[in-house]
Design goal:
about 140 residues; mainly alpha
Length: about 140
């Protein structure tokens, strides 16, 4: 049943019907993409790249969750101050995590892998955008 719901959600997403399921699907796809990137990096590169990807992706995905929370609070409380407060806290925590990762574990976390891990959300966004464009070109304009 869960698989059918996700299939319907994915079909609605790539067809351009963005609804309340988009954020849930996007966050889920971020975690899946992070795991896939870590597995591929484990096969083709060293362990410091893999730990960098995992650390950067973990920070990026937590930032995505915090951004969703702040946007909901902003809509609920009708003020932008909530968003900027959450943004300041998230940026502080990200700076602390990056500094700790590179100072405490300099041999375990690769800066290149960390940058790739931080790019998980952007890569996922472009993959979903490309899927929507392909679906519209192949199915909606061809009819």
């Amino acid at each position: 049943m869960l698989r059918v719901a996700r299939t319907k959600m994915f079909k609605a997403l790539i067809s351009g019907n963005i609804d309340e399921y988009f954020i849930k699907y996007y966050k889920f796809a971020n975690w899946i993409l992070l795991v896939l990137m870590a597995v591929v990096a484990n096969v083709v590169s060293s362990i410091d790249i893999v730990t960098g990807i995992l650390a950067g992706g973990f920070i990026a995905n937590l930032n995505c969750i915090g951004l969703e929370r702040d946007c909901k609070r902003m809509v609920r409380w009708h003020t932008v101050i909530v968003y900027y407060g959450g943004l300041a806290v998230r940026l502080g925590l990200i700076t602390l995590a990056v500094t700790a990762a590179f100072l405490i574990f300099p041999k375990l976390v690769s800066p290149i892998g960390f940058f790739i891990g931080l790019s998980v959300m952007v890569i996922n966004f472009y993959i979903l955008l490309l899927a929507m464009v392909i679906h519209r070109v192949c199915f909606k304009e061809a009819v």
